[in-house]
Amino acid sequence: MIALCFLLLAIGSEVAATSALKATEGFTRIGPSVLVVAGYTLAFFCLSQSLRVIPVGIAYATWAGLGTASIAVVGWLVYEQQLNVPSVVGIALIIAGVGLLSLYSETH
Asked: How far apart, in whole angstroms, are the C-alpha atoms of residue 108 and residue 101?
C-alpha cells in the first residue's frame, strides 16, 4: 500500500512539474523553474521508492499513462487547450489500459 502511495505521489508531482514548465518561460522565471526542478526530483524519488515493491514495467506504465492523461486534462482546464473527440477517446484508452495492466498483470 505504501508503494502505491509513492507511485501516486510520483504521478502527482510529475504532473505539477510538467504543468509548471510553460510558466517558466524557458526557465527565465525563477519561481516556476524551482517548482519544475523540485517536482521532477520528488517524482523520480517517489517512483524509485515504489519500485521496491511494484515491478518496474507496471510502475512505469502506470506513471506514464496516468501522467499523460492528467497533463492533457490540466492543459484543457488551466491553459484552455482544446480536446477533441479523438483526444478524449485516446485518454480513455490510456486509463483503461493502465487499469487492465494493474488489475490483471501476473507480475503485480
From this structure: 9
Alpha-carbon separation of residue 37 from 8, 21, 27, 40, 75 (angstroms): 18, 10, 10, 5, 20
What length does the chain have?
A: 108
Question: How many folded domains does the chain comprise?
Answer: 1
Q: Output the pTM of the full model.
A: 0.85
Distance between CA atoms of residues 10 and 16, nearest Å: 10
Enclosing domain of residue 92: 2-104
Q: pLDDT 10s per residue in the chain (108 long)?
A: 899 999 999 999 999 999 999 999 999 999 999 999 999 999 999 999 999 999 998 898 899 889 999 999 999 999 999 989 998 998 889 888 888 887 777 654
